[in-house]
Amino acid sequence: MRKVVRGFYSVAHSVKLCRPNVICAYPITPQTEIVENLAAMYANGELGDCEYITAESEFGAASMLVGASAAGARVFTATCSQGLILMSEVLFNAAGMRLPIVLVNTNRALSAPLSIWNDHQDSIAIRDAGIMQLYVENNQEAHDAIPQAYKVAENRKVLLPFMVCMDGYKLTHAYEPIDLLDQETVDSFLPPYEPAAYMTTKKPLAFGCYAPPHIYMEFRVAMQQAMERAKNVMLDVFKEWAEVSGRDWGGHIAVDFPDSKILVVAMGSVVGLLRKVVEELRNEGLSVGLVKIRTFRPFPVEELREALKDAEKVIVLDRSVSFGYEGPVSIELKSAIYGHSSAEIYSYAVGLGGRDMPKDFLEKLIRDVAEGRERPGFAFKGHQEFEEVIP
Amino acid sequence: MKFFGSGHGACPGCGLPIAVKTVLNALEGKVFAVNPTGCLEIISSQYGKNAWNVPYIHSVFENAAAVAAGIEAALRAMKRKDEGYVVVFAGDGATADIGIGTLSGAFDRNHDILYICLDNEAYQNTGHQQSGLTPPGESTTTTPVGKVLPGKIGKKKDMISIAVAHGIPYVASSSVGYVSDIRRKVKKAVKFEGAKYIQIHSPCVTGWGIDGSMSIKVARLAVETGLYPLVEYEYGKLTSVRKIKDRKPVEEYLKLQRRFRHLFTHEKGREMIEVLQRFADENAERYELDLKKDEK
Fold first, then answer.
1. A86 — contact with chain B (CB < 8 Å)?
2. Using one digit for the tens of pLDDT, what is the confidence trace for A5-23?
3. Going by DSSP bridges, is the β-strand pair A313-318/A344-349 parallel, antiparallel, or unpaired?
4. In whole angstroms, what is the distance from residue B56 CA to residue A197 CA?
5. CB contacts, 8 Å: A53 with chain B
6. The pLDDT of residue A366
7. Does domain A253-380 have CATH number 3.40.50.920?
8. Domain coordinates of chain B in residue numbers?
9. Angle between helices A213-245 and A139-153 (to 10 degrees)
10. Residue B219 · residue B15 · CB < 8 Å
């Protein structure tokens, strides 16, 4: 059923159809209406055999999900920014315990200074946790991502948490026409969760044992192997989803105009605007294409090598910074294509803390690179010139 | 070994296995055990040497109450509540310091869990550092006795009152010195629907500086001096108190333990002993601990 809804609802509706057993969350802007929608569904008895719990903090919410998931429940939470960082100790732990928790991160900047607006610093900061990360471009992709996230996370070849990253405000608060899924479609795609191991008095097992040096490393190697297996599991699940829903969002990356001399690489909602910009610049005769990174973890190494092998110039738009170096997507992209491409890399940190990235800004940036007014390397773009006062 | 046993690495005389076995046996092993980081976790859950014969989980240091709440919610959602009780076994630091946020949340939501605080009065696993439940006058590695200071200054956090203030149905204190008291309180606690808190005084032979053979004697002296009153609250009302016949002076308890030894030589030691005696006297008054001559 096609309906105009906000991004929040597109997520909540999809979560409901996945039949979770336990939802725990703590409200934080701009995630709040996702959990408010779920709380309303719970209050109206629409969530079936599900407990909805308002936690005392994001830390508590993530911790409850660890207990619930270990007990064999399908679980969900949503958060962002300070909340995600507060959860992070537990999220690293959940990944190590191989719990297929699904969460939505409504990407928001980190304090200080305090900002409730969008960038990717929060989710990027926990890239090493062992959690899969998928960045969506619009609310239909967010809606569709939830059942796929469960199917990938719960696959016994994977068993790792899955985080769907959607831009705060830009997507969460936006009204878009969404083809809302129905229960039958989701049920046909996503079977009930059957945990490989869970806490039961019928067969006692221990979760979260401690591991001395003679055995710890093997668990971490196993996590890496699971991430590597997840790459193929994702491709299967994405393909199946395209057949079931009729909507194909691509693989680990999605490329428009692959044979272009200039390729712009980005993640998240800015991709939608970039697509329009690239189309217009192509109409002017510029050889420019677009690479949308969907899965940041596992990182699409081979896919990027293939996509960028013949490019002359690559523009990477990062929505976060690794202070003291540069944009994390750019860092990883360079590492991935090292020795496989001779393209010049133009790495830009843009749109931090909700700084607007209007169409003419993006157009100018691409033109400047195309016409040789920019040098390869890292720079911030879109900030005001200012003189830093050093006391 | 039935529910907890062979393979654990506790010191001889440690109170933790005594308490854990008593609780698990009282509940006939129908337990989902949640154990935050700490000495109990380290002595019982090494990979390949797991000493628990009940489903067990260790997540991090400060979230045991929330993990337990999550298990309870999952069992409720999946209609598996009859499988067993969700029981936390946490140390005093995990309970009163770093984990008090998630504990308060779980109490506030009144999850159907039994939270057991195994109170050995310091971070013992890491070598005897001060916690909120360390009593005043105790020398720990982070509140050491020095030329100026006589060990910890301040007081032992009153977790019993904090638990009662949350309005949960059952709160009690107990001691490894009185195993039958633990058994009785655990069996009673699980009859209540909602959050239950039992704080069990549990000697640590290395941290307290006692011989393993002295554990039970020292634990009993804590009760007999009035420093560790054994009480029970139901729905906020004090319903039972273990009376003391001929309450002993706190020195009898203190002098047996290395952690308090300096109090008998330090220039501020006498003052700290008086502080501790005053706490014992206040407990005696507050809970009417002293058995009167005409009482049995």
1. no
2. 999 999 999 999 999 999 9
3. parallel
4. 12
5. 69, 73, 109
6. 98
7. yes
8. 15-287
9. 130
10. yes
For residue A64, give the chain B residue with the closest CA. B70
Q: What is the percentage of chain B residues whose pLDDT exceeds 90?
A: 97
For chain A, the residue count is 391
Residue A340 CB partners (closer than 8 Å, separation 6+): A305, A308, A309
Which positions ≥6 away from A360 have C-beta within 8 Å? none
For residue B46, the chain A residue with the least C-alpha distance is A210
Q: Which residues of A260-283 are buried (b: 16+ CB within 10 A; e: fewer)?
A: bebbbbbbbbbbebbbebbeebee
Reading the block at residue B263, the tokens are 């109090």
Q: Which helix (H) or strand (E) holds B108?
A: helix B100-109
User: In this structure, is the dihedral angle defined by the CA atoms of residues A319, A32, B71 and B235, taken in order, positive or negative?
Assistant: positive
Domain B15-287 part of CATH 3.40.50.970: yes
Domains A2-245 and A253-380 share a fold: yes
**Angle, CA of B204, B208 and B250, to the nearest 5°:** 115
Nearest-Cα residue of chain B relative to residue A210: B46
Interface test with B, best of A24, A77, A209, A214 (most B CBs within 10 A): A209
Chain B residues within an 8 Å CB radius of A93 = 59-60
Nearest chain B residue to A208 by CA distance is B58
What is the residue-wise DSSP string for A143-172? Answer: HHHHHHHHHHHTSTTT---EEEEEETTTTT
Residue A71: per-residue pLDDT: 98
Residues of A with Cβ-Cβ distance to B102 under 8 angstroms: 56-57, 59-60, 63
User: Between chains, do A210 and B41 touch, taking CB under 8 Å as contact?
Assistant: yes
| B56 contacts in chain A (CB < 8 Å) | 199, 204-207
The pLDDT tens digits for A339-370 are 999 999 999 999 999 999 999 999 999 999 99
- Quick check: B71 and A67 CB within 8 A? yes
Give ipTM to 2 decimals: 0.97
What does the pLDDT read at residue B295?
A: 65
B254 touches chain A (CB under 8 A): no
Task: Flag whether the pTM goes above 0.90.
Answer: yes
3-state secondary structure B197-231: EEEEECCCHHHHCCCHHHHHHHHHHHHHCCCCCCE
Judged against a pLDDT cut of 90, whether residue A91 lies above it is answered with yes
Phi-psi region of B205 (alpha: psi -120 to 50; beta: other; left: phi over 0): alpha
User: What CATH superfamily is the domain A2-245?
Assistant: Thiamin diphosphate (ThDP)-binding fold, Pyr/PP domains (3.40.50.970)
Domain boundaries, chain A: 2-245, 253-380
